[in-house]
User: What shape does this take?
Amino acid sequence: MEASRRRGTWSKRWRKLMELFACFAPIVFVNVPLPIAAVAQEAEVELHNVGRLNEAVEALAAAGQFSKAEPLARRALAIRESVLGANHPDVGESLNNLAFLYAAQDKYGEAEPLYQRALAIREEAFGPEHPAMIASLSNLANLYGAQSRYAEAEPLYRRAIAIAEKTLGAQHPAVATGLNNLAVLYRAHGDYVAAESLYRRALAIREQAYGHNDPRVAATLNNLANLYGLQGNYSDAETLQQRAIAIVERTLGPEHPDVAKSLSNLALLYVGQGKYPEAEPLYQRALAIQEKMLGPVHPYVSTTLMNLAHLYSSEGKSSEAERLYRRALAIQENALGPEHANVAVVLESLAAHLRKTDRDAEAEQMEARASRIRANQYSKQTRQAETDRR
Assistant: This one.
């Protein structure tokens, strides 16, 4: 009974973490061609440098090196503001890029005003119902969702969907993305019925737009399968997960990072049913893919290490579990900093494992550090909320 409760607590914690990083539609860094004919040659060179900076930012972000990408994104923003003016649409793009980097590091207070400013710039430049508004509204809503500020996120998602439906059509893939985002929100606060309806509509749109064997269809299948898993509908969940794996393997290749995500989702489903022998090889294959394709210190590798460590801990493989927990901790500290909320999650999981092996003193140290991190995070959010009210 105790092991079951621990499995449940761990699964809920990590499902939420994975939702925040995997389910929301990602920011896409795009270099928009600039009208530079009328710009002085020196400014033209500067704007050309922005393209190079954005490429470097994108590469670092893809590698999970968000803090290293920050100064480059700030420089790109400063150049565009200087050359183009503070309210140029391309400045809005740079604001979005920098805000994304902040949000990925839980620097929500720094990210929010940038997203808000980017939204205001696009609304002024294009109008309140232009398709360019969809991404900005979704970005800000994603940020609120990551902080469990669901009441603020929902109207932004709904507005984004309404704009997409009106300007692009009810069956446009952008509508499917908005429906997926809103479904994630409903799932997060337990409205599974509403979430399922939205996921199914998103799936139908994507199947119509891309066909039944497209990776974007597989992403929606994953989301719907995860929802079924939360509801205990393991049979339907497994069917959808296996279909998703088949699609991404066939279309992207057997070593694509998206294959690793789908494998981990299926493994997590098996863990929830206590089917550890079925889950272990899936996690191991997912880990091998991520280490090869993303590098051994990518944050996604840390997530899979945690999953596999929990599995080993549940099976009584104490030393193997501890080694993976500690490696996951090192990756998170290196990628996101020692005070990031993800570090607290790993510390708490490691502490729970240490207590199972009667190492209470070490566990207390881990728990105390995790508590300090969470207290600091709460203090920062409180200060930001007070600033916003002024």
